[in-house]
Amino acid sequence: MQFFGIGFLVLLFLEIMSIVWVADWLGGGLTLLLMVLSFAGGVLMLRHTGLSGVLLAGAAVRSGQDISLYQMLWPIRYALAALLLLSPGFVSTAVALLLLIPFKGKPVAQTAAFGAQGQANPFAAQARQDDGEIIEGEYTVTRADPSAKQQDYIEHKRD
């Protein structure tokens, strides 16, 4: 955690320097236009998915379906790229574009892959072992004399 602050300062310095370098290379007007387009792209991306995409990734994990790591991480990567596009500077824009590059991988939670190794699917929902008998009711714990034995008496209430 002590290097987080130093890393943030280095990123801030690189962002400012990238704006200066691009402005020197392309000119101030075109640099400003690129930063406005980057910001608008980030806003449109956040409006497209936003928090619902991240919640959808969490729901896919909890559902117990066979999902790949790509399917699980794509909404999170997309939202993070949108947030990075909102910040001015071209280092964060480059990182956002790297996050948007699609990469495919092997499915993480395929039943056949886990079954071959003898392991259970970690994303599968746990089946509950119910024997079908559910007893519902209320109870109240009352104590007898405090000087008497420490024995609890339970008084059942029936509706």
Automatic annotation (TrEMBL):
It holds the Pfam family FxsA. The keyword DNA-binding does not apply. InterPro entries: FxsA. Keywords: Membrane, Transmembrane, Transmembrane helix. This is Membrane protein. One of its GO terms (cellular component) is membrane. The chain crosses the membrane at residues 32-57, 78-101. It comes from Bergeriella denitrificans.
